[in-house]
Design goal:
mainly alpha; Ferritin; two-stranded parallel ribbon; two-stranded antiparallel sheet; 13 helices; 4 strands; binds fe (ii) ion
């Protein structure tokens, strides 16, 4: 799609930018092939590909428990959930491809360690209760972000989000049901649920991104309708929904500073350890190396499938020509 991605040095940039921003202000969607600033394209490729990688890497911590699920029902739910995440990765890679980036380029960026994915998936799943907690907190945080992105100005991303959110809602409900069941179960189950909440609460808050004051991309993304809320606004929504529900289930939260503020109607949280967040983002979380190794191994082991598909496509094309 050459010529569609405008640069500030282009002679007609200012006029086209004004037209582009007016379309967004009117609530129109920007579609593949439409004129857009190169910076809008760059930010979207970054966000959508990171999001796609997160869905795919996100299968690993939960996939590790499929063989150890405590019942057939729980196993079937978990298999369905992990499979959904693979589908989310597919929708999102497709959405990014509409911006002129190839699947190979995106995968290469992931496998070489250049691309980022959500920090949360670099934490280990130590007990079965982690699976319910991921559904409740991690999918819960993802839904807050994705509901916002379903309103975004880029058509393919927005439509992918609408479909994905429907499935995430199921992931969220099954996680919540599981943790509440264990919270009301035997002392051992209750301790396991509490331990999982203790370990996942802070990483779930962090996965919604740095504070607005440390998020330099946010103003541009809000102006162009990619984000309609800031990281801190989405985080506040997440806490307001989840903190009272977790307390209601008879569990506690690992934040001595957490309190309900009557004046604003918000649950106020204590300071977040951003050093931990940046360490994980920069490759030094507990599971970063294992996650990347698992993806590299899966990619290498899947080489024969890609080769077979390419050979099949080439043969079909030859047959079509012969006919
Ligand atoms: Fe997902
Ligand atoms: Fe999910």
């Amino acid at each position: 799609m050459p010529g569609k991605f405008g640069k500030p040095t282009d002679p007609d940039y200012e006029a086209r930018l004004a037209e582009f921003e007016a379309r967004i202000a009117r609530g129109e969607k920007i579609e593949p092939g439409d004129w857009m600033p190169e910076e809008y394209r760059r930010q979207l490729v970054r966000m959508i590909s990171q999001h796609a990688h997160s869905e795919v890497v996100g299968m690993l911590p939960e996939g590790a428990w499929i063989t150890r699920a405590p019942s057939l029902k729980r196993k079937m739910i978990l298999i369905a959930k992990v499979q959904d995440e693979a589908g989310h990765g597919q929708y999102l890679y497709h959405a990014a491809e509409t911006l002129g980036v190839t699947r190979e380029e995106m995968l290469e960026a992931l496998l070489s360690g250049k691309a980022k994915y959500s920090s949360i998936f670099n934490y280990p799943t130590l007990t079965w209760a982690d699976i319910g907690t991921i559904g409740w907190l991690v999918d819960g945080a993802a839904i807050k972000n994705q509901t916002m992105l379903a309103q975004c100005s880029y058509g393919p991303y927005s439509r992918a989000m609408v479909r994905i959110c429907a499935e995430e809602t199921f992931h969220h409900k099954q996680g919540k049901e599981m943790v509440i069941t264990y919270a009301k179960g035997t002392p051992k189950q209750r301790a396991m649920a509490q331990d999982a909440i203790n370990r996942w609460w802070w990483p779930a808050l962090m996965m919604l991104g740095p504070h607005d004051s440390d998020s330099p991309n946010t103003p541009t993304l809000v102006k162009w309708g990619v984000k309609t809320k800031t990281n801190d606004e989405v985080r506040q929504e997440f806490i307001n929904e989840h903190a009272p529900e977790i307390l209601e289930a008879g569990l506690t939260l690992p934040d001595p500073g957490l309190r309900y503020d009557e004046a604003t109607g918000n649950w106020v949280h204590g300071p977040i350890n951003w050093d931990e967040f940046w360490a994980v983002v920069n490759g030094n979380g507990p599971m970063n190396k294992e996650r990347l190794e698992a993806r590299r191994r899966a990619h290498a082991e899947g080489a024969w499938v890609r080769e077979a598909l390419a050979a099949y496509a080439a043969r079909r094309q030859q047959t079509a020509v012969a006919v």
